[in-house]
């Protein structure tokens, strides 16, 4: 199984970028992954341009998980169970999508197989990236029974 992380823009904050890189490196011990950073849209058409690029980056045979404040919430053990279910179910690729600051258009939301909320709190998109990769790493430590801070 492979993860694809699709998000708008680069992580500009060097400290957050270092955290994303650290957790991606750790995650790489358990699964393959690819990060697709898409160019930010500008002006009124920004969200539409970004959404077209997101849809263009998704593979038709993969599972798409949109990070969305209105999505389902999982505890870390529940996320680990989902990841294990995807692995055992033969899912080849899971794309985790984080839209731009203005969100995504309805076509991207409709394209998503699942909508996942990291928190009901408002997070910066850069912070959401850190939480996403950290929680996926944590899920694998739970699956493999490895010690990890609680």
Topology readout:
Layout: E1 2-8, H1 14-27, E2 32-38, H2 46-57, E3 63-72, H3 76-88, E4 93-98, H4 106-111, E5 114-116, H5 125-143
Parallel strand pairs: 1-2, 1-4, 3-4, 3-5
Helix pairs in contact: 1-5, 3-5
Characterise this structure.
The protein is of the alpha/beta class. It has a single domain (2-143), classed as Alpha/beta knot (3-Layer(aba) Sandwich). It is built from five helices and five strands. Strands 2-1-4-3-5 form a five-stranded parallel beta sheet. The two termini are 26 Å apart. The model has no long low-confidence stretch (mean pLDDT 93).
Compute the number of helices: 5
The proportion of residues in beta strands is 15-25%
CATH homologous superfamily grouping:
SPOUT methyltransferase, trefoil knot domain
Work out the number of β strands: 5
Classified by CATH, the class is Alpha Beta
- Overall, the morphology is globular
Given as residue ranges, the uncertain stretches (5+ residues, pLDDT < 50) are: none
State the helicity in percent bands. Answer: 40-55%
| CATH second-level architecture | 3-Layer(aba) Sandwich
The main sheet orders its strands as 2-1-4-3-5
Distance between the termini: 26 Å
Radius of gyration: 15 Å
Task: Sketch the major β-sheet.
Answer: 5 strands, parallel
Count of domain modules? 1
């Amino acid at each position: 199984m492979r993860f694809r992380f699709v998000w708008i823009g680069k992580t500009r904050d060097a400290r957050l970028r270092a955290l994303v890189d650290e957790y991606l490196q750790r995650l790489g011990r358990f699964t393959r992954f690819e990060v697709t950073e898409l160019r930010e849209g500008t002006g009124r058409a920004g969200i539409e341009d970004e959404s077209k690029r997101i849809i263009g980056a998704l593979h038709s045979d993969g599972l798409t998980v949109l990070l969305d404040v209105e999505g389902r919430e999982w505890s870390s053990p529940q996320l680990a169970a989902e990841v294990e279910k995807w692995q055992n179910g033969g899912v080849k690729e899971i794309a985790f999508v984080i839209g731009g600051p203005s969100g995504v258009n309805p076509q991207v939301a409709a394209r998503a197989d699942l909508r996942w909320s990291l928190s009901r709190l408002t997070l910066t998109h850069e912070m959401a990236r850190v939480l996403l990769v950290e929680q996926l790493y944590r899920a694998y430590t739970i699956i493999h029974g490895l010690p990890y801070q609680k």
